Amino acid sequence: MRVGVIGFQGAVSEHMEMVDAVLGRGSAVAVRSAEDLEGVSAAIIPGGESTTIGGLMRSSGVFNKLRELGKKGLPLWGTCTGMILLAKKGDEQTKRTGELLGLMDMKVRRNAFGRQKESFEEKLQVKGIGKFPCVFIRAPAADEVYGKCKAIARFEGRIVAAEQDNFLATAFHPELSGDLRFHRYFLGKL
Ligand code: GLN
């Protein structure tokens, strides 16, 4: 069983280590081309900078391939930047991100918690998981979920985790928390 972690920028190795910890060594593969996605059972889009990661995904062909696989039911999880890219709609700032994958019924806002609160940790109640240490770094949030998308965690009235069928989105970084429960939860979709 192989799980692809989109490997251009950001918290790639941290996600890979957690996937390996849950599924066994060598399960996680870094994805930098559409071919790297062949045969993967799930994929994760890590945090980083959405303009950069989005641009590299598009120029490499990973973007279109991921969208196609996601529509066919591939379990796909986006953390932070990944949450932005999974959304169907974005705020003004996401215009600089460029085209979004448009797979989840939600409207996201980039840098939703402002500059004075760039990075922080909060224990939040996550539906299906319980109280979880959530690490936020210049995090987005969803202003709105609709259709089949459901909010599974909120902070200060904003949606910071959401789920829709085979898709999972978190504004925070479970791969930096030292807690494997979120990775177990996602990989439980396999
Ligand atoms: N603020 C970044 C963006 O808008 C996301 C930050 C992150 O992924 N940690 O792309």
TrEMBL record:
L-glutamine binds at G48, E49, S50, R110, I137, R138. The active site is at C80, H173, E175. PROSITE patterns: GATASE_TYPE_1 (PS51273), PDXT_SNO_2 (PS51130). Pathway: Cofactor biosynthesis; pyridoxal 5'-phosphate biosynthesis. Keywords: Glutamine amidotransferase, Hydrolase, Lyase, Pyridoxal phosphate. Transmembrane segments: none annotated. GO terms for molecular function: glutaminase activity; pyridoxal 5'-phosphate synthase (glutamine hydrolysing) activity. GO terms for cellular component: cytosol; glutaminase complex. GO terms for biological process: L-glutamine catabolic process; pyridoxal phosphate biosynthetic process; pyridoxine metabolic process. It catalyses: aldehydo-D-ribose 5-phosphate + D-glyceraldehyde 3-phosphate + L-glutamine = pyridoxal 5'-phosphate + L-glutamate + phosphate + 3 H2O + H(+); L-glutamine + H2O = L-glutamate + NH4(+). Belongs to the glutaminase PdxT/SNO family. In the presence of PdxS, forms a dodecamer of heterodimers. Only shows activity in the heterodimer. Catalyzes the hydrolysis of glutamine to glutamate and ammonia as part of the biosynthesis of pyridoxal 5'-phosphate. The resulting ammonia molecule is channeled to the active site of PdxS. This is Pyridoxal 5'-phosphate synthase subunit PdxT. It comes from Fermentimicrarchaeum limneticum.
